[in-house]
User: Fold this.
Amino acid sequence: MTVPIARLAIEGGVPVRSVMLPYGHQLVTDDDVAAVAGALRSDWLTTGPLVARFEGDFAAFVGARHAVAVSSGTAALHAAAYAAGIGPGDEVIVPALTFVASANCVRYLGGTVVFADVRPDTLTLDPLDVARRITARTKAIVAVDFAGLPCELDDLLAMASASGAVLIEDAAHAVGATYRGRPVGSIAPLSTFSLHPVKQMTTGEGGVVTTASDAHAASMRRFRNHGIDLDARQRGDLGTWTYDVSDLGFNYRLTDVQSALGSSQLRRIPQWSIRRQEIAARYLAAFADLPSVELPATAGDRTSGWHLFVIRLRLERFTVDRAQVFRALRAENIGVNVHYVPVPWHSYYRQLGHRRGGWPVTEDAYERMITLPLWAGMTDQDVADVINAVRKVVVAYSRDGAVAR
Ligand SMILES: *Cc1c(COP(=O)(O)O)cnc(C)c1O
Assistant:
């Protein structure tokens, strides 16, 4: 059967849609605006009661003993790495495939980043490669819930505890995800979240670390506030002016205005997670008959937060390279992206001695991957546009032009 092939927009045809669809976007409702307005009219714009309320809400949502709110996901990683006691001479295992902040947090504290490869199916940190790279100097393992799918938590926890290392779960992609029946954020000793607008929920900029440890929580609360033992509100309540700076901290505080937005956004995460799962299920079904597209893995023992929908092209079946497929989808007004350039490839890490070629799964995945738009506010028409554009471009550029597997 010959399927008539529509002319691609990049070759002068009509684009699938007329307005660019971003790969991720925040959802802000009237309730959120009202919550923020209320905070702006209150006595506390920062270090006030709404921060503690948001921390309580977040901790309850993920089933953690403590949630410590900070000014970004990067600050959350920095605080978690600090709580884990990382310092000069310590090695920390980090996946080569992640956002650069997962590795940078180690460098802020003078630690040595040891990049490990990811699994070919899930693109999460590969415990087999961690086993090859772990040493007596390994102080921590940073594991990323790539695209929202929880990493191999049980294996990594066992490996970390056997070698005296701390597992830090970078759950920036995984708000609302679950692993073996438990919510992400209640499992690792330290789990970090990002509240950037492209993530599942937002406070503009913001981050959270969850932990079961009273000591870790107290240390991170000092760390986010210059290393001061009492914050301004606690000093007011105690009627004292004195305080002690016990260690070098930062100003990584989340404001009450942002916290008001956080508590309001968090209420809609259950419904937004369902919408993300629905969209992912539609993509998985719509592309199942395209042999030239490798779809993201799912796993029976965990649910993904579906922050990203990352496909990998089977390039041997294409007449063009990944860059051309990417440009063609952009021309159809589908705001595709690529997550991520392998971290050790960046010049900062090359200057530290990392060389291309050490992480074959990461590097192969990077050459073939494209991130499709996925966010809770997408309409059914938006989803259909993505499906139509991907099929249009993939069919036009497939060697056999074939669709059926
Ligand atoms: C977004 C992200 C971060 C950093 O979060 P910010 O809030 O942007 O600082 C860290 N790790 C991963 C994997 C991320 O995707």
Notes: The two ends are 14 Å apart (CA to CA).
